[in-house]
Amino acid sequence: MIRLEDLTKTFATPNGLVVAADKVNMEVPTGEICILLGPSGCGKTTALKMINRLIAPTSGRILINGEDTSKLNDIELRRNIGYVIQQIGLFPNMTIEENICVVPKLVGWDMKKAKSRAAELLDLVGLDPRHFLRRYPKELSGGQQQRVGVIRALAADPPVMLMDEPFGAIDPINREIIQDEFLKMQAALKKTIMFVSHDIDEAVKMGDKIAIFRAGKIEQYDSPDRILAHPANAFVADFVGADRTLKRLRLVTAEEVARADAASAARSASVADVRQSLASSGERIAVVIDGDHHPVGFVTADELQGASGRIGDFAHPLPASVPVRADLRAVVSEMFAHDTMWLACTDDNGRYAGVVTQPAVTAALRATYGGANAGAA
Amino acid sequence: MEILSFIANNWSVILGLAAEHIWIVAVAVGLAILTGVPIGIAITQSKRVADAVLYVASIIVTIPSIALFGLMIPLLSTIGQGIGWLPAVIAILLYSQLPIVRNTYTAITNVDPALREAAKGMGMTPLQRLLQVEIPIAVPVIMAGVRTAVVMNIGVAAIAAYIGAGGLGVLISRGISQTDPRQLVTGAIAVSLLAMAADWALLKLQKRLTPAGLKR
Ligand SMILES: Nc1ncnc2c1ncn2[C@@H]1O[C@H](COP(=O)(O)OP(=O)(O)O)[C@@H](O)[C@H]1O
Ligand SMILES: [Mg+2]
């Protein structure tokens, strides 16, 4: 757990005092990613660098797992905190392996262990160790260097990570890929992470919590969903953007709003039976599924009136279906593309998993959540 | 032709003088590396000190070598070394400070601040930063300074023959005093060849010492 208490930093400059951090109070629970978000110059980097004491606070305290960091030895402290700088900062005179092994060596791991760790981490981010260990930074692309920068910080397995715009230097497509990779690693590693960003989309995607900064002050510290749903003030609302409601679509998956018990019917079912059950549940549509439970079409209650025979003969083809893991942005996009009010969902095996409707999506966006943590609940 | 036969007849003398010459420059520049590199690193801590030190070093280089030898005679006479090998080494040691201190200072201050910050943030001590990051990155530029010092001072060492330091300058000074163009030309050619050979050898060394990751 990282705790900032009344953390303040003022710089004396030729143009007078600059307050880079102004009584910042916040707490990052163990295993969570907290995003420091805000416009350039608002004090994000300063806040981050006070945590590993690259910048000494003017006043206030920083506690890591309850320990006041000003009481610790700076060098020891930094060796226990993974640090990713915005400029990547791989040492050009060292191979990739030597770069990754820097901190393990500093803390006295034996070289064999450090080297096997380097290979393991490269593997984890999809860089073939046989190919990359002996290379030099200049031989890598920007995206590859950025991956190495991140795993170098992870090498000695520090419980806490500080990341200053770690994915800033790469193109949007690669950035999304690295973000996804990183979230997958974090799901397994559960580090406590302070992550600086100036990109609201990145913050919403990566953060368990987001702290929005302006001129050294925290304007709002909340879950991404609450920041988007309930910006604390005009500055926050403006910063997250006029499309903040649409951004929330990315925070919810189809599974969370789908009705798993929506009516379905086997192709071989009799029209009379289905008509009967639709009438009793009051539903207007049933999804038709095949013998393997894959959704293959739909029937409407109206068309079944006065008909008889097998459901398969009355089925219309489905316009589209979406995986339950898809976020609502993808769902809505499919709905608009096929001009439909509802879509069938499928699980990982392509089996029918319920129906998601436009009203359900709208209701999810309207929903207000109770506690600060309730976004994912 | 005369010159060629002079060289052929005096081959071993010339080699002996060349060895003396190399010895003077090697000892002096070696000591200059041992002093100049630490000075160059130390002055990165303060811009004002750096400016002052570099100013003094450039003043020293403007003193003509003959004048510098002359200045040292009374000083070193007190220990009985007014002329000969020692004043030659000291003069070259002083002249070498400028290229070595300046290149070291420039190379260290030019190390990307992001690298310094990464090193610091990862928990390296100042000495570890210097040894593992800053110096390896600075080596090519420091070596270029050493090369400059060596080439420049092979010429200075030739003049040191006038204060009895030996070396290839002996051929030149004798050539002048005995109006013997064979010795004069032989000495002049030998000094130039030595400077060119040293430059080439040090360039090779510089390339070998440059970390592989910094080579183009
Ligand atoms: N070493 C420094 N000396 C003087 N002012 C500084 C220094 N570092 C940062 N600042 C100022 O503090 C403010 C916050 O900077 P910074 O934390 O780098 O912002 P951000 O990372 O959010 O872009 C800025 O106004 C910046 O100019
Ligand atoms: Mg910054």
From TrEMBL, chain A:
EC number(s) reported in the record: 7.6.2.9
GO molecular function list: ATP binding
Membrane topology: Peripheral membrane protein
One matching Pfam family: ABC_tran
Catalytic activity of the protein: a quaternary ammonium(out) + ATP + H2O = a quaternary ammonium(in) + ADP + phosphate + H(+)
Residue stretches spanning the membrane: none
Domain of life per record: Bacteria
Subcellular location, principal: membrane
Compartment(s) where it occurs, according to its Swiss-Prot or TrEMBL record: Cell inner membrane
Location of the ABC transporter domain: 2-240
NCBIfam families the record matches: proV
Record-stated family: Belongs to the ABC transporter superfamily.
Protein name listed in UniProt: Quaternary amine transport ATP-binding protein
Lineage: Bacteria, Pseudomonadati, Pseudomonadota, Alphaproteobacteria, Rhodobacterales
From TrEMBL, chain B:
Domain ABC transmembrane type-1: from-to ranges: 18-202
Pfam family, one: BPD_transp_1
Main location as per UniProt: membrane
Record-annotated membrane-spanning stretches: 21-41, 53-76, 82-101, 150-172, 184-203
Subcellular localization(s) per the UniProt record: Cell membrane
Membrane topology, record value: Multi-pass membrane protein
Keywords carried by this UniProt record: Membrane, Transmembrane, Transmembrane helix, Transport
Database matches in Gene3D superfamilies: MetI-like
Family indicated by similarity: Belongs to the binding-protein-dependent transport system permease family.
Name of the protein in question: ABC transporter permease
Organism per entry: Albidovulum salinarum
